[in-house]
Amino acid sequence: QEEKKQLTLKVEELERKLETTSAQNIEFLQVIAKREESIHQCQLRLEEKSRECSSLARQLEMAIDDAKKQVEQTRERAISRERAAQSKLLDLETQLSRTKTELNQLRRSKEDAQRRYESRLQDLKDRLEQSESTNRSMQNYVQFLKSSYDNVF
């Protein structure tokens, strides 16, 4: 009976470990969901920046067209307007350059996040598989103990 009591305690301990492992699995799934949401938010920001970049490119094209029309109207007005347009063009190109840089950074960030997510996901899968293997081993051991006790008694 002392052995039975000890084995019962071991079984209870294994059941507690199983519950802990299940809770950890739930936590891991929540972490994965949060990361997926984060990736989704990054993708939305990337799309927004892409639209902004397209808008800036259109603005740049419109500014260039305006500058060309002004140059054609009169030579004197063209010189002053050309300077203003070139200044605006420079600002827009700077903005476009910054936006492209930021877009590239967001892409790299997204790719890095994706790699980290995939790595973490693989790690979680491996850990889950290991946990399931351990659970199976424990269940087999408990089954062995039950059959052994059934055979003894």
UniProtKB/TrEMBL annotation:
Places the protein is found: Cell projection, Cilium, Flagellum; Cytoplasm, Cytoskeleton, Microtubule organizing center, Centrosome, Centriole; Cytoplasm, Cytoskeleton, Spindle pole
Region (Disordered): 101-120
Biased composition (Basic and acidic residues): 108-120
One GO term of the biological process aspect: cell differentiation
Keywords: Cell projection, Cilium, Coiled coil, Cytoplasm, Cytoskeleton, Developmental protein, Differentiation, Flagellum, Microtubule, Spermatogenesis
Superkingdom of source: Eukaryota
InterPro entries noted in UniProt: Odf2-rel
SUPFAM superfamilies xref list: Tropomyosin
Protein name: Outer dense fiber protein 2
Lineage: Eukaryota, Metazoa, Chordata, Craniata, Vertebrata
Primary gene name: Odf2
